[in-house]
Amino acid sequence: MAERRNGRGVGRHRRPPEAQATYREVFAVGEFRALWLAQALSFIGDQLAQVALAVLVYQRTENALLTAATYALTYLPPIVGGPLLSGLADVFPRRTVMIVCDVLRAVLVALMAVLALPLGALCVLVFLTVLLGTPFTAARAAIMPDVLEGDRFVAGTAINNITHQATQMLGFLAGGAIVAVVGAREALALDALTFGASAVILVAGMRRRPAPKDRDAQSLGLWRGMRDGARLVFGDPTLRSLVSFAWLCAFYTIPEGLAAPYADTFGGSAMTVGLLMGAMPTGMAVGAFLYSRFVRPASRLRSMGWMAMLACLPLVGAGLHPPLWGVVLLWALSGVGSAYQLAANAEFVALVPPSGRGQAFGLAQSGILAGQGLGILIGGAVAEVLGPQTVVALAGVLGLSAAAMLTLVWNQVRGAAIPEERVAGGSAPAA
Fold first, then answer.
1. CA distance 300 to 342
2. What is the mean pLDDT of the chain?
3. Which end of the chain is less packed: N or C, by CB atoms within 10 Å?
4. Residues 6 or more apart in contact with residue 271 via CB below 8 angstroms
5. Calpha distance 17→340 (Å, rounded)
6. For this UniProt entry, which segments traverse the membrane (predicted)?
7. DSSP line for 240-293
8. Whether residue 281 sits in one domain with residue 299
């Protein structure tokens, strides 16, 4: 593992070439199985809750704007609370943080299911439920490198990404069917059960680990932790470049937010909307599988810039107004290119000190969500004037330009770092 001293690059060295891990090796780790199953249950519950909340709010208000606003509310808590609450994963035992967040979320969602709350109170509970997901996600991301080492971490991350995309593709369809059969409140009750089951799985399947930081030596100091996390990430050229690559998704996720108006150019059927919304997650799942299974660990960082450009380049083709099958193919190809995030994530993990992982991951995740929300919002506004095809093409052009510049900076950063590593640790191969 690479070492780093508070972002100054002192004592850092490159990891030796690693053997490529298989998915079987990853699933052989019991703690990963527990983390994966808990995550899968949470993903399924989230999709179910989104459909149930949309139905519940619309049934009560018959107002499309209020329904959309309630859905959009799920983007706000991680942006507002992410940089602050993610530090909990560095102050308390990460297993405990995940279990407590799951239990609290189960209680909050159960209240939504049981009580006939006014819309304002319902929005508050939705906000708190999503807010608790921030320290949970940070703790889970921070503990993953302790559970999976070396290339197993990359393979495990790919499995998680594939699981996420699969639940996205199938979740809305299954969620709609479940809500139609059992009702919105009953679906929320099922979501509460998934959080409870996740907590039980983590209690049984994860071993106890001490808190990364000594609470006696360091007070909670969440604001100070947020400041230190920002200084760590943005004060180091390598970490800054890796986070910038992660935030590039703000450009190539804009098409998902424009799927409905884009589908309207082809007749606007619900099936067309679903086809467009499913194209990119399908490409992401395929890309994560191919990138983790057939690209050697030593080649992933070298290809990261090219893959980032591939994530944006196909979207430029929207300006040519291709037929529906062409749009689906282009969006899926963009999803394949986004697999570069696996390499960026793995290198980020290797360079961040273990005691600061929660804060660093929370900061990166908050930026991703903020960029996605802002990009979709701006894209939707511009699409009202220029049309969805033009906006998607512009997003591709801007993203491709940003990816090219990031690649140039990344090559300079790595080129400057490798000679230092050779002086510090002998002849080290480029990752």
1. 9
2. 80
3. N
4. none
5. 19
6. 64-85, 106-132, 187-205, 232-254, 266-291, 303-322, 363-383, 389-410
7. HHHHHHHHTHHHHTHHHHTHHHHHHTTT--HHHHHHHHHHHHHHHHHHHHHHHH
8. yes
- Using alpha carbons only, what angle is made at residue 108 by residues 102 and 114, rounded to the nearest 5 degrees? 130
Q: Which two tokens stand for residue 125?
A: 């509970």
Highest-scoring range by mean pLDDT, 64-73, 83-92, 221-230, 336-345: 336-345
Let me know if residue 30 belongs to a domain: yes
The domain tally of the chain equals 2
Say whether both 90 and 239 belong to one domain. no
Q: Could you say which of 195, 212, 229 is where a domain stops? A: 212
Residue 70: which pLDDT band, with cuts at 50, 70 and 90? low
Strand, helix or coil for residue 415: helix
Query: Domain span at residue 359?
Result: 220-424
Where would I find the beta strands (DSSP E) of 344-422?
A: none
DSSP string, 141-184: HHHHHHHS-THHHHHHHHHHHHHHHHHHHHHHHHHHHHHHHH-H
Q: What is the pLDDT of residue 222?
A: 53
For residues 164 and 156, what is the distance between their CA atoms, to the nearest angstrom?
A: 12
Q: Indicate which CATH number applies to the domain containing 366.
A: 1.20.1250.20
Q: Do 205 and 324 fall within a single domain?
A: no
CA angle, residues 260, 264, 270, in degrees to nearest 5? 60
Which range has the top average pLDDT, 55-59, 157-161, 219-223, 388-392? Answer: 388-392
In this structure, is residue 322 part of a structural domain?
Answer: yes
C-alpha pair distances (Å), 65 with each of 23, 62, 116, 133? 44, 9, 21, 25
205 and 257 belong to one structural domain:
no
